[in-house]
Amino acid sequence: SDVNLNKNIRHQFPALQQRINGQPLAYLDSAATSQKPAPVLAAIQHFYRRDNANVHRAGYTIAARATEQFEQARAKVAGYFGMSARNLVWTRGCTEAINFVAYSWALQQLNAGDLLVVSGLEHHANLIPWQQVCRARNAELAIIPVLATGELDQQAFQQLLQRRPKLVALTHVSNVLGTVNPVANMIALAHQYDAKVLIDGAQAAAHLTVDVAELGADFYTFSGHKMYGPTGIGGVLLSNDMLNQCQPWQTGGEMVEAVSYDTASWAQPPHCFEAGTPNIAGAIGLASAVAFLEQLPEDWQQQEAALLAYAQQRLAAIDGIRLIAAPAEQVAVQSFVSDRIHPQDLAQYLDQFGVAVRLGKHCAHPLLAALGEPVTLRLSLGCYSNQQDIDQLIAAIDAAHQGDTETAVSAENNHLDL
Ligand code: PMP
To answer: Residue ranges of the Aminotransferase class V domain (predicted)?
Structure first.
């Protein structure tokens, strides 16, 4: 079928070859973290087996190899996002990248009474750091409301811009609803009002072609583990202007030029923002993941979109299943609930059928409250997802619905806090 992705892709993922409870693993939780292809696993092993040494210090052969590979990885990953190596600061992931911008930039730039705008769709990672910064600086935090479709209220956004915020922080793709925000337009509008813009790219990087330079984002953050790379590596891409405005938020080894007992001077960006030994193997593994993404079949994004449409159509056809929101632009993620079975029971049932989906509030408590949903089940796709994964999910839901209906509980009575 044309919604079946190339089998060659799936074969490259060892974790997808296993069976769970006697069923093939239908991994539908790639928004939480993606599985890792064999070349990424091999790149990490190769580094540790052959080239392991600390970077930027010693001049001996394997240290030079480690440094070269680490800096080549920076160039590779930055290039994937349309940026240069010096515009990429490594972090542990997207959360740390946003915190870096909050503490290295926003804390220096904000004054009492300033306005900061965040969207109502945000993951806690792109909300709480701004609450903290606003509290510390006595600045105000305003929220762009979410419409019932799962899209942002663009009129409200434009009204907020007239109040001249210092920063707009918003996600490229919602991790709960899959909404693709019109970030190019929103950035251009924000810039008309001299606001800087941070885009949280955690859910976009593995599904969309992202050119940060073309988008014009001042900051663009991402997590390696959601784009087929290892955990513990991610980063922020910054414009040259922002690179110059940021102050080191952590200090110590690797980030200095000259040090005396009394004082120290900083290395050039981006190195002055990377105190301590970095995640060398992680960066190398992520560069390998980017190489993997770059060699996917040309139409892989369309294939993923077709599979999402297939999943939506199959879910919508089940009596008692309700899809949450319906943004016009959506990728890889679909939230849903059953009106017949308690979501926790349903998730457990699905696991018995080898189906891995996420249950809960998806680190977006305010969004779930705004949607009026206590919790949702969420399926999310990767380049390896195929029609069989979806068919297995549908069969499991059907079985659950036909089974023990006495465990059905009204979703409204549910106070799970996941
Ligand atoms: N933002 C979004 C939209 C996310 O989906 C996530 C991960 N669930 C994050 C930020 C945080 O990423 P990490 O946990 O890798 O730091």
So the answer is: 27-393
The Å distance, Cα 22 to ligand 1 centre, comes to: 31
Q: Which residue in the block uniquely carries the two structure tokens 């479709």? A: 149
Ligand 1 pocket: which of 30, 34, 95, 128 to mutate (most atoms <8 Å of CB)? 95
Known catalytic residues are: 363
Helices (H), 246-386: 280-294, 300-316, 343-352, 365-371
Residues 6+ apart with CB under 8 A from 100: 89, 91, 236, 246, 249, 273
Q: In this predicted model, what pLDDT tens digit does every residue of 276-320 receive, in sequence order? A: 999 999 999 999 999 999 999 999 999 999 999 999 999 999 999
Neighbours of 53 (CB within 10 A): 16
- pTM score: 0.95
ipTM: 0.99
Residues pairing with 236 in the sheet: 89, 221
Q: What is the DSSP string of 157-184?
A: HHHHHTT--SEEEEESB-TTT-BB--HH
The distance in angstroms from the start CA to the end CA of the chain is: 37
From the list 256, 259, 258, 260, the residue with the least C-alpha distance to 276 is: 256
Distance (angstroms) between ligand 1 centre and the Cα of 97 equals 10
Task: Determine the Cα–Cα distance for residues 326 and 261; give it in Å rounded to an integer.
Answer: 60
Closest CA to 201 of 122, 319, 309: 122
- The burial class, CB within 10 Å (0-12 / 13-18 / 19+), for 97 is buried
